[in-house]
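Request: Have a read of the protein record below and say how the chain folds.
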Amino acid sequence: MNNALPQKQVVMRFPRGSVGEETFQLLELPPEILKQVEANDSVFPLTIKGRPSDDATLHTPNATFQLRTIGISNSLLVCIPLFDGTGSFPGGRETLEIRDVCHEVLECLPVAANLERIGTVLSASAWEGISEGVLGKRKRVGEESKHMKRWTKEQLQSVIQASDEELEEGLRERNVVEVDGKMLLLPPAELKELLTIVLCLLTVHAGASSSAPTEALISSLEEHDVSPSLSAAVLGLFGEVQGDLWIADVERIVKQVGMGLLCKIKKNKRKDEFMAEWREEVGEKWTEHVSLRLLQGEHLLDPPPPSALASSSSQILRYYPFSSLPLNPSRRFAQLFQTRPRWTPEEITPFLRGLTREGDMKGRDKLVAKRRMNLFVVY
């Protein structure tokens, strides 16, 4: 930075008359955003999203930042050029008019996107299963059953505090598809019933591979009262269409079948019984993909695996989804250690999702380090 005095004089003036309620809020861009802004020849989008009651967040196309007001020791003057009636500076001297004096700025702090709101917003209009048709319905109120509000992707983008890239990934992880221009949440239990049919059809049409003719699958699903628009969306969510063939992501399908079984556990279930039921649901051809590794962060085992007492026949499985835990770090750690007094790093890591940016290992480790002395104990 050049600290030399300016080479020319500039006249600074306060407004002669009232400028009304005009005020300015200055935003300090971190290097992460500034580099992207400077590297773009066109307009670089910066968006503030959320509801009036939310803390303000700023979003780039692929990241989320919390906006926080901080005071500054040196006040900043917001000025505009002052011209006379001829479009020239008064008296031929460069003149600036002071429009505001700022004693604080907004800084941007990188944070995890608030993707849990997706389920909150879409749960009321969620898909109710094959027997109920394509669209979710409002529960009967009195003698009438009315349709719930169904959201478009644009409407979701305005209330979900996430970048477009983060939102796309969040919708995929939560099994949200777009059907007839509206977003539809596919709950685990109902989705399991549909995916077991898909696996059966895949076994029939795929032979030794994991691909099958797309039109044949959609036509077969229509016989199970699944509309072509929903079938196409589900196939796109759990695989990739290449030409006339659908290439299935079998591991992802098997995982969701397991999730559908897991969320139905009302209290506890023996691990070996659960695994046997899971294998039966997916069919013999796909049992090699069945693994509790796919359900990390969604369940607890008692006693934990490192215990000498732990075995497939003695371990008890409990449904414990990370999405049900508080988003506040202190409250989440408190609940985790209330549930289980001791954790290994491998066990607790899946339950910390959503507290930091995806892939931000340093941020996650900082959260753990703050609580290591009084909370974190390794077996």
